[in-house]
Design goal:
Layout: H1 4-38, H2 43-69, H3 74-84
Helix pairs in contact: 1-2, 1-3
Length: 85
């Protein structure tokens, strides 16, 4: 049974994780892309590096933290759906 307290705690954990994923997707991956282009890598390789940063720092870290931080799978699932849109 999901209690209101569990849902509220999960919601409070969801907010910073959601912001972290948006930060990685919007700023960190772009920074890595620009750095790779500046270092002389072709744009296709730089895009690959940026995508790998998203996979590691957004998806990987979040996927590792979810089983330890959340009591229910509802909010991580909804967050993933929102980010996929």
């Amino acid at each position: 049974m999901i209690t209101q307290t569990d849902f509220l705690n999960d919601f409070l954990i969801t907010i910073p994780l959601f912001i972290w994923v948006l930060f990685v997707m919007k700023y960190l991956s772009r920074w890595v892309y620009n750095l790779a282009v500046k270092k002389g890598y072709p744009p296709d390789s730089a895009t690959y590096f940026g995508r790998k940063i998203i996979h590691i720092f957004a998806s990987g870290i979040t996927a590792l933290l979810v089983p330890f931080l959340f009591k229910t799978p509802i909010l991580p699932f909804l967050s993933a759906l929102i980010l996929a849109i």
